[in-house]
Amino acid sequence: MKSRLFSVEEARALMPEVRRVADQLVTARADLAEISRELRDEGGSAAGGVPEVKALEAQVSELVGWYSEQGIEVKGVAPLLVDFPAELDGVSVRLCWLEGEDRLDWYHRSDLGIVGRRRIPES
Q1: DSSP-derived pairing of the beta strands 91-98 and 118-119
Q2: pLDDT tens for residues 21-74?
Q3: 82 neighbors 15 (Cβ within 8 angstroms)
Q4: pLDDT of residue 1 exceeding 70
Q5: Could you tell me which of 122, 1, 12 has the C-alpha nearest to residue 68?
Q6: In sequence order, what DSSP letters do the residues of the chain get, joined into one string?
Q7: 95 and 86 in contact (C-beta within 8 Å)?
Q8: Which residues of 35-74 are buried (b: 16+ CB within 10 A; e: fewer)?
Q9: What is the pTM of this model?
């Protein structure tokens, strides 16, 4: 995992790629949930069996790993919540993006987590 601090501009510049990977992750996560439930509750799935479950688990892991390779912290996968380590006015913060949001518009102090979420001030 890369250790880095992002500026707001750097984090926002990565958002097209963040969202592209998120779209793949959401699809794989949904496929995995459906097949797993069908296998558990019905004993089989038209979408596949254990090999497909293992492949989807590996795909989800690989996609989550992409974020770590960029220095982005994954805080949750359902829904997908990612944090970009940053500093604002000398304070350690996390610029945070939640699946479904159009833009990277939020941050929270590193010691507070998402409960302390605020809008990123416009510069």
Answers
A1: unpaired
A2: 999 999 999 999 999 888 888 887 777 778 888 999 999 999 999 999 999 999
A3: no
A4: no
A5: 1
A6: -----B-HHHHHHHHHHHHHHHHHHHHHHHHHHHHHHHHHHHS--TT--HHHHHHHHHHHHHHHHHHHHHTPEEEEETTEEEEEEEEETTEEEEEEEETT-SS--EEEETTTGGGG-EEPPP-
A7: yes
A8: bbebbeeeeebeebeeebbeebeebbeebbebbeebbbeb
A9: 0.89
Within a 10 A sphere around the Cβ of 113, how many other Cβ atoms?
13
Q: In the sheet where 106-109 sits, what is the strand order?
A: 73-77, 80-88, 91-98, 106-109, 118-119
Tokens, residue 33: 């949930």
Sequence-distant (6+) residues with CB within 8 A of 89 are: none
Listed residue (37, 28, 30, 25) closest to 72, CA to CA:
25
Check: CB of residue 98 under 8 Å from CB of residue 30: no
pLDDT range class, residue 2, cuts 50, 70, 90: low
